[in-house]
Amino acid sequence: MRHFLIFLLLLPFALLTPLLVEGQVLQQMPVAGQDTTLAAQDSVTLSAPKGDIATTIKYSARDSIRFEVDRKVVHLYGDAKINYGTMSLAAAYIEIDYETNMLSALAQTDSTGKEIGVPLFTDGGETYAAKKIAYNYKSRRGRISEVVTQQGEGYIHAEVVKRNENNEFFGLHSRYTTCNLEHPHFYIGSQKFKVIPNDKVMSGPFNLVIGDIPTPLGFLFGLFPTPKAQKRASGIQVPSFGENTRGFYLQDLGYYFAWNDYIGTLVTADIYSLGGYNLDAKTDYVNRYSYRGSFGFQYNYLKNDEADIAFRSTNINPLPPTQRSFWIDWSHTPVQKPGRGRFSANVRAGTPGHQRVNYNGTANYLAAQFNSSISYQKTIPNSPFSYTINARQAQSNSPRAQTNVRGEGQSTAPGAGSMSFVLPDISLSMTTVSLYELFSKAPATGAWYENFTIGYNVRARNEITNYLPARSFPGLNNDNIIGETAADTIPLNFSNLQKLWESGKRQADHSLSIGLGNYKVFRFFNFSPSVSYSETWLDEKYSFRFDPDSQKVKIDTTNFGRVYQYAAGASLSTTIYGTAYIKGKKVEAIRHLIRPSISYNYRPDFGDARFGFYQDVLVGAEPTTNLPLYRTLPRFRSGVPGSSLSSAMGFSIDNNIEMKVRAKTDTAATKFEKVTLINNLRLSSGYDFAADSFKLAPIRLTMNTRLFKVVDVTLASSFDPYRIGADDAGIVRRLDEYYFDITKLRLARVTNANLNLRTNLNPAARKSETTSPTNLPALQQDMDPLLPDYVDFKIPWTLSLDYTLSYNRNLERTVVNRITVIKEASKINQTFGINGTLGITEKWQVSYNAQYDFVNQNIAHANVNIHRDLHCWDMSIGWVPFGIMRGYNVTINARSALLRDLKLTKRSRGSGLYR
């Protein structure tokens, strides 16, 4: 009898062995056919016999497990779970039929009629949520009813889905969407479809349904790629179409080449019916833990017949004429590694005016110039030396001035297509080291001479520019006596390479600095003496001679020149603290910090003939008729030291004022906080004892602070201590007479002043200025430049104000009837800027940016952007109301990058004119 009872207890496990190798079983073994409630859970592991089971199976249920031995069926109730290899199944109810190798799962309803425990099936990273699941774990085939599954960024809804052994599944009455809601806002409906996981979704005839309203948009078949997130794939980029002043267009027609996992290239083209086109190729590359970068090339052919005709007839061209342009963008960023060199690149170069003709962002359109650089840096191990190799380029953002049919109108002003190159720029630096440690191995004893230090730097560069400034050398009658005076711009082409090389300059700069230590004197003062030496090697050295026959100065050039200079100086500084205790209800004390500093520098007169850096030229055909007139000319075009003795003293005073107040949150009035009244107020000037006149240098006053923790204030001003007046000849000029007059309360004459007030009125925005937003919608990466890069809905509103006031006062020279008139003139510039955002609702966001010029009484630049979060869609409106780029752009697009071509765009004249 005892053996028979043991046999009955082990019979269910003997029958379930092919399926349930390791399971969660009852603490007390159930009797076949009897319901049992789980009082506790235990774990049992049984050996798996050879057969169809490839791995262990785990199962559990929160409520109960019922065995039907005669039917070979197991019922799991309440949070039922089964794990078998990569497959898992969870539902309110699961049935295991080990006779047919079938798993069935259903949801249940609670007392309120709500469905609970919806079956969730996972296999190999694929997840399916459905009302009913039937799966054969041996053949790996299944049938799923009312299923929702995710493939890549998309979701598939279907009434019935069948899955085969190849992990492919087929659906009936399906809906494909990127909306993650149970009832999606839009979907692509099809009667039948086939899904190959991590590859593609194929469908029969389909159409687009928006808001449950069928649209006629569709096709006879559909193909939607669903690659793995880490897998790159080549493919066609579908273009957008529309109309603007360049005609009907197809934009962003292209192909993406996924060369491998580290590099990919996107080639796109824009085609316009009136004859223009754009070509764009961009390559992104990355090598993890080493570097990353991108390289882009753009070529644009702008055909604008209307502008050409208007220019020929009126000689005025408000719009860009027909032209070809190109642009290169290259960014390379390495990962810094100790002991290794660092190569980096940031190149933004191309045809002048390209960024204005082809509008691609406010920052690029308003930029005065673009700078490019390529550099390699390395520190030599176990030495104080490091070297850097640079190549730099700078160009203006203004397009070249156009010449009319008569050959008139060519501009030679700097900025009209001017470029400069530094190819290459090589420097070798030695960090400051102690002279004692450099020449002695003995331990330091603390002697004063052990504080001496030395530093060295050499820099060699080749500078080339296509802009030649005008040269001027006034003679007796103020007429130029050295060649042409007009500036010139050399066209950049291969035929002008020699002329460009000759216009450039080559030089090498050496600098040697010797620190003589830092010493305490009179207990409270810091004394720091120093000496310096620098030398420059140049590729040209000039010799001047006056030719009486031509009344011109002739210039002879040699191929090498050497310029050097040396100086010595010392500085004395200290710090003074002062505190006034108020002991008021709110203010506890006021602290004033003063840092006075005085310095002295001496430099010889390098204009002396013994140095040979300058040459005196006798001007005049008949020097005996009049007194001889000498002009001192530098014999080098750069690096020449001053031609006078310098024995100058400089002084400055820095002030910082803080206030100690009681914290507002402190009820006991025992905690204090610091409030800055003046962050830094600096007064500086100098006095040159060796100067013949104007010994006192201009007085400079700068200040910056923050008022009420909201307003940032920056002030910079300059004062001239000398007055303006007429000399003995009646010419208005700067006189060597002090402007100071205590009886008239005059201290110094203001020459320029700049005041800037800036505030951000939203506290939440100020806090988020240094943090990256975390709840931004996933805007597609090829958004129009009129639209914002991202929208932060977390902050309901932001408002930033910027006010700038500048004042300049100088001598203005005008010529009236060949008579030069000099008078003192002043100029005031005043601008006000405003930008911010306004969250009208949780889904509506408006951003704005504008700047008003009070002097010219116009709006310099303005734009308004409106963004609407449509959950799985985005709507963006960009509007530029003023300027040559005025216009608007309306875009409605699916948010998912998978359906990036599912969008509607409307551009007006301005925003679509050059794109």
UniProtKB/TrEMBL annotation:
<dbReference type="Pfam" id="PF19838">
    <property type="entry name" value="LptD_2"/>
</dbReference>
<feature type="region of interest" description="Disordered">
    <location>
        <begin position="392"/>
        <end position="416"/>
    </location>
</feature>
<feature type="domain" description="LPS-assembly protein LptD central">
    <location>
        <begin position="201"/>
        <end position="722"/>
    </location>
</feature>
<protein>
    <submittedName>
        <fullName>LPS assembly protein LptD</fullName>
    </submittedName>
</protein>
<dbReference type="InterPro" id="IPR050218">
    <property type="entry name" value="LptD"/>
</dbReference>
<dbReference type="InterPro" id="IPR045659">
    <property type="entry name" value="LptD_2"/>
</dbReference>
<feature type="compositionally biased region" description="Polar residues">
    <location>
        <begin position="392"/>
        <end position="413"/>
    </location>
</feature>
